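User: TadE-like domain-containing protein, Methylocystis echinoides:
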Amino acid sequence: MKHDGCEAKTRMRRFLIDAGGAALAEFALSASVLILIFIAIVDFGIYMYERDQIAKYGQGLMLYITQHAPDIYYDRLTLASITSAVTPATLGLTLPNVGAPTIAAGCGCASGGAISLGAFNNNPPKCNSSNVCNAVEPESAYVRASLTYNHRPFLLPAQFLPTITNQFIVKIN
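Assistant: Predicted structure for TadE-like domain-containing protein:
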C-alpha cells in the first residue's frame, strides 16, 4: 500500500515541473497590456483627427469671412449668416456635436499693439483711420473666431487629451 504523503509530494513535483499551460497564461497577461496600449494609441489618433478637423473648420470660417469682408462694412454679414453658411457639414467634416463658433470683431494694430475685439453683434468695426500704429500704419479691422470641442476619450483620462480650443484671427482691411 502506498503512502499518501509521498504521492502528494510526487503530484506537487509533477505540477511544478509541467509547463504546458504557462505559455497561455503569459500570453493572457501580455495580451491584456498590449490591448490597453492599442486602445490608448487609437484614442490619441482620434484626438489628433478631431483637432485637425477643428483647424479645418476654423480655416473655412476665416476664408468665408475674408471673402465677404466688404459685406461686413455694409452691414450685410451677420453672425447668423456666417454660422449658417459655414458648418462642419458644408466643409465636409465629420465632427459630431460641435458648438457654434464665437466671433469677435474690433480694431487695433497687428505689430505688437493690443487688438481690442468686442462681440460680433452685427455692428462691424469702424476703425478710425486717424489712429496710427507705430507712427506709420493706420489702425486695421480684425475678426476672430474661437472654436471649442470637447473630446471624449475612451481610455485615457481627460487630463491627457484636453478640450480642443482654436482661435483664428484675420485682418479684413
